[in-house]
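Aim 2, interim progress: modelling of the S-adenosylmethionine-bound target.
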Amino acid sequence: MGRNSNSKRPSSNSWDAVANWYLGWSGAEGSRHHRELAIPALTSLLAPRSGERILDIGCGAGALAPAVARLGAHYTGIDKSPKLIAHARRHHKGGVRFLVGDATRLSAVAPLAVNSFDAAAFLLSIQDIDPLDAAFAGAAWALVPGGRLALLMTHPCFRIPRQSGWGWDEARSLQYRRIDRYLTPLDIPMQEYGKAKRGTTRSYHRPLEAYAAALNANGFAIEAIREIPAAPSGSPEGETRAKRLARQEFPLFLALCAAKCR
Ligand SMILES: C[S@@+](CC[C@H](N)C(=O)[O-])C[C@H]1O[C@@H](n2cnc3c(N)ncnc32)[C@H](O)[C@@H]1O
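Predicted structure of the complex, ligand included:
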């Protein structure tokens, strides 16, 4: 189980150690979840326009880059993992650039400049970045006044690693979602790496109110929220009624967009 997290520690670079595993799962174009759900949802909230400058924070191998570049916007991805950035540079070309940098110290990442992006995104990265406040402060620093911030994460109310899961109610023939902990922020070990499994990547669970409070503290006003159910794992015809109901009632992702208003 994870530790309580109210962390002031600088974030680790554990994703570099699992870069090959992550690339095997997601590739530079993103996993099935990315392609079918996450990228379309985030792109519709971010609404990149031709000529705009878009910053993708915690970009990994740049799964969001093609969707942004296709709309004629200028894409910059930053990530702490040099291996994922090297892969992104090899894979994505034309109208895109990738930088190694720490999202919690964005103003130290050359050649980024204050007030220089029209919109910023966290695609499945905000839950892996700590501290949260520094990540939003960085986004606020990078955005022009009125700039847009869009983020998409696994739903913090229903998909808490190690603290939530599916159960089966025999009497009512229904699949339920069980939540063991929610309000306490947690620092949760995830993917193990190293010969003796000496380290793990971390995921940071925070209740929804922590996201709203950190956005507000950094001058953002939330404008829209979307809760996105998972796609069926196989053919929709092969899905039982109970599984379909549970899938449709308990969203996999939460996405939101906010405007920098001060
Ligand atoms: C689940 S991956 C998502 C990557 C990519 N956005 C995607 O959807 O494929 C989380 C990413 O967050 C990055 N990350 C975690 N902490 C970071 C930090 N402090 N600064 C920059 N990137 C960070 C990791 O290196 C990793 O690439």
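Residues 11, 15, 26, 30, 34, 58-60, 63, 79-81, 84, 102-104, 123-125, 128-129 surround S-adenosylmethionine (CB under 6 Å). The helical segments are 14-17, 19-26, 32-46, 65-70, 82-91, 132-142, 208-217, 241-249.
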